[in-house]
Amino acid sequence: MFMEKDFFWGGAVSAAQCEGNYLADGRGASNFDQLPLNDQRLKPVFKNKTKSILTEETETIYPGRIGIDFYHTYKEDIKLLSELGINSFRFSISWSRIFPKGNEKEPNQAGLAYYDALLSELERYQIEPIVTLSHFEIPMYLVEVYNGWAAKEVIEYYVHYTKTVMAYFDGRIKYWIPFNEMNMVLHIPFIGGGIQFEEGQDNLSLQYQAGHHQLLANALTIQIGKQINGNNQFGAMLAAGKTYAYTCRPSDVFAALKHEQENLMFSDVQVFGSYPAHTNHFFKKHGIKLDVTELDQKVLRENTVDFVSFSYYSSACTAAETEGKETVAANGFITLRNPHLPESKSVWQNDPIGLRITLNQLFERYHKPLFIVENGIGTQDVFNKETIDDPYRIDYLNEHIKNMILAVREDGVELMGYLMWGIIDLPSVSEGRISKRYGVVYVDQDDNGHGSGKRYKKESYHFYKKVIETKGAAVFEELPDSTKDIRKRSD
């Protein structure tokens, strides 16, 4: 047996990737709705380019606008997840559904009604909601008028939105995550902050300033949320993963250290209430100029988070000299290929022990309860007469959950729960393709949005159900031969 009864076993999705119906019932457009199905999705958007990803083309597919129709299918989807045995479900609220332009005084009642109905469905099955208030989404109007989070004015609009939502759903939601993967504003600035660059502009300072505005909005949301209800709990959320040195050369080890300092900066501020000394030195060294007032510092210092949540898909690897070394995709950025990790069916390298290392690292650093709110493998699945055999996903879940349990049982890490990412198939952030599937529930839909939309249980669904039923004990049992064969081919 693994955890006490209040451990969260569940899954996670985002509004931008699953709801679809992007202009239904008064919703406004968001930055995520502008991401096309091509290789430009993760690249910076420049205002003064003649053509960018914001160019509307009739032949272009925008997967975020399609989603998986969760806006209409949430009842059957929640029922399917209740049969899986989950006791928690992370979803995000679309800012544009509540305030279509982002700066209205009064909310869109149809948007509030939708999330009211979704919460009622979760309550029906006694599933705890874990709610993200901004999951890579900002109303497009604020992007066009204010350049997204680059402008300080957006803080006021965001806090009005979060206050409205927290007050409206008071007592029904306890666990709040103000921003998803805040550190991604440095890697995918348009997705992470609605930021558009200009040629010749100090774009690096712009990114850090936008991040500072998000940190302030995060702290103010905590301040108001605690005033609304003292039981509310707030979490930092970062894209995490241990950064290894490519070799044991001291210069490579130092490069890995600097990479981790950058990656953990935002969560450092959310936990400790101030910028690390190395970050302030970095700003001076690189001429990064931020508008940070004494009042800003007070707000950050007095409104820190209750827990640290994070996504983990794989680890990273770096060196002092990266030229000529093989690279591989990571979560929102490129990293060196770790020669000690096996080939994976996913585009990311498979490193389950890296999760245990990351858990130890974060708990030792922050001394706060941790929460894995995203973990999973995105890969192609073969649909065969209503069955989906996915031993690679079973192996991924088995090994990562096993290392998670070892981190708690053997290393003393305090952990709130485990939420599998994209528990229902949805279009990915990095590629926009639903064919890069994460779920234990298959959605009959292709990358262009065509298909019946019908849901099917994969073999991994039954495996994860057993894991939940046994409170994790199933991961220490013998796996089916097909799953063991996957591991042999990877070794």
Automatic annotation (TrEMBL):
InterPro entries in alphabetical order: GH, Glyco_hydro_1, Glyco_hydro_1_AS
Keywords associated with the record: Glycosidase, Hydrolase
Residue ranges that the Swiss-Prot or TrEMBL entry lists as coiled coil: none
Hydrolase as UniProt keyword: yes
Residue positions of the active site: E374
PROSITE patterns: GLYCOSYL_HYDROL_F1_1
Family annotation (SUPFAM superfamilies): (Trans)glycosidases
Domain of life of the source: Bacteria
PANTHER family: 6-PHOSPHO-BETA-GLUCOSIDASE (PTHR10353:SF296), GLYCOSYL HYDROLASE (PTHR10353)
Family of this protein: Belongs to the glycosyl hydrolase 1 family.
Protein name in the entry: Family 1 glycosylhydrolase
Species of origin: Enterococcus larvae
Organism lineage string: Bacteria, Bacillati, Bacillota, Bacilli, Lactobacillales
